[in-house]
Design the sequence.
């Protein structure tokens, strides 16, 4: 009987051991499964939220996973459209690119990873022939994509210019850039993509914390009975609610920026050429005088003193304005505008842009003389009205190498010198006569004044002889 009892007890102990062993195996299996699930959750949280370890952050990050609406990002506050995903990439991208063929700018390729919140912004400058017309075309092009005009700034002075602000869906961002660049010549383009995913996650986490704090304060306020405590709680509640609304406003702003891409378009017209008056004056020379038949001559000329030479002058209008009342002279060779003989063109003008005035001077080589040309003219606009701007002159004077004449003077040279002396004396006499003529009337006026003064002076009256004088006169008789 006792053996049977021990046998029964042994069976019961063995059964209990078997049960304990099975329970430990089940617990190990359950622990392993729980470890695997936790590891998967942690990995999913890191993939969605950039490695955030908090439960609230993991939940928030998982809320940005792609849904069935063709890649639309979802947040706890709403569902703004997510950025286009051409190919996976490491994050945001920024470029200065444009449409092909526009000043060497290439197309923009934005690569954004899945599940990210991206803010797209672009600023482009397009040169067009007609700014008002291009403005209408740009608005029509964006309307075809469902874009909105958020602002327009137009000026007409000093040159027409319009700045337009467009909002388009992120998936239409690249198409919008291509359409706007096709309006004219793309001058510049800056495109940026800002990854705001971490900012959104941080704001949502702070909003959750702030909302919980507000709820606790409201609960404390509902249970408060002390008047001073109520006042303190209301002040704290006001601060917490203000901070909560500020955080929610920041989140809504970022979500709105991510929901619609922003494009700043600047339309400009080609700047007109600045008014410029400029000429190129070139001098050449050759021996002898033949009324300029051999013009142009040489840039350098070696001559003997006293030899006759011809100075050729070529004036080209290299500016973009017309010239009239032209004067060409040479102060170094003592040649004024009256000595200049025109071969081609006219001194009265107009000398149009690109045209050339050709003429010459007859001169004599002298040791003390060197070429120093001068040019002046009146600048006029398209209507022929004078413009008060200077004329830029680029001169290339001829180089004269004059050799001194050391030969013995001949009879002809003496006669020529005497004749020059007679001419000089004659010029001096004519000059003196010319100076004296204006003052010839001065002596006549002086004489006339003196004569008139004498005529107008009355004669002195004769006085009667006194008694003494009469007695003396009688005595004398």
Sequence:
């Amino acid at each position: 009987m006792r053996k049977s009892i021990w046998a029964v007890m042994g069976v019961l102990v063995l059964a209990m051991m078997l049960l304990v062993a099975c329970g430990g195996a089940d617990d190990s299996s359950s622990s392993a499964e729980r470890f695997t699930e936790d590891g998967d959750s942690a990995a999913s949280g890191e993939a969605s939220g950039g490695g955030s370890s908090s439960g609230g952050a993991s939940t928030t990050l998982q809320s940005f996973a792609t849904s069935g609406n063709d890649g639309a990002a979802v947040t706890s506050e709403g569902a703004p459209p997510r950025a286009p995903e051409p190919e996976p990439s490491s994050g945001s991208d920024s470029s200065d690119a444009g449409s092909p063929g526009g000043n060497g700018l290439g197309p923009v390729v934005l690569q954004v990873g899945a599940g990210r919140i991206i803010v797209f912004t672009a600023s482009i400058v397009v040169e067009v022939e007609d700014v008002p017309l291009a403005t209408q075309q740009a608005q029509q092009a964006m309307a075809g994509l469902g874009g909105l005009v958020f602002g327009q700034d137009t000026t007409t002075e000093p040159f027409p210019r319009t700045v337009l602000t467009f909002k388009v869906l992120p998936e239409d961002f690249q198409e919008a850039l291509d359409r706007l660049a096709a309006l004219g010549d793309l001058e510049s383009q800056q495109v940026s993509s800002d990854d705001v995913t971490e900012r959104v996650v941080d704001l949502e986490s702070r909003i959750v914390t702030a909302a919980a704090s507000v709820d606790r304060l409201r609960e404390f306020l509902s249970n408060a009975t002390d008047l001073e405590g109520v006042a303190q709680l209301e002040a704290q509640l006001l601060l917490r609610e203000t901070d909560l609304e500020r955080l929610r406003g920041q989140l809504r702003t970022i979500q709105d920026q991510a929901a619609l891409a922003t494009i700043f378009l600047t339309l400009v017209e080609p700047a007109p050429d600045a008014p410029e008056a400029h000429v190129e004056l070139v001098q050449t020379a050759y021996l002898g005088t033949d009324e300029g038949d051999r013009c142009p001559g040489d840039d350098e000329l070696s001559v003997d003193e006293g030899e006759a030479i011809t100075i050729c002058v070529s004036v080209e209008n290299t500016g973009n304005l017309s010239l009239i009342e032209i004067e060409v002279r040479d102060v170094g060779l003592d040649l004024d505008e009256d000595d200049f003989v025109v071969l081609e063109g006219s001194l009265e003008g107009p000398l149009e842009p690109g045209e050339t005035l050709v003429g010459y001077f007859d001169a004599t080589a002298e040791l003390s003389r060197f070429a120093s040309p001068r040019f002046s003219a009146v600048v006029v606009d398209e209507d022929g009205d004078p413009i008060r701007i200077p004329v830029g002159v680029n001169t290339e004077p001829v180089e004269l190498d004059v050799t001194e004449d050391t030969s013995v003077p001949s009879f002809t040279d003496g006669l020529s010198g005497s004749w020059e002396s007679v001419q000089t004396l004659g010029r001096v006499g004519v000059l003196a006569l010319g100076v004296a003529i204006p003052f010839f009337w001065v002596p006549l006026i002086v004489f006339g004044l003196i004569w008139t003064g004498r005529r107008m002076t009355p004669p002195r009256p004769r006085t009667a002889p006194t008694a003494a004088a009469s007695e003396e006169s009688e005595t004398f008789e």
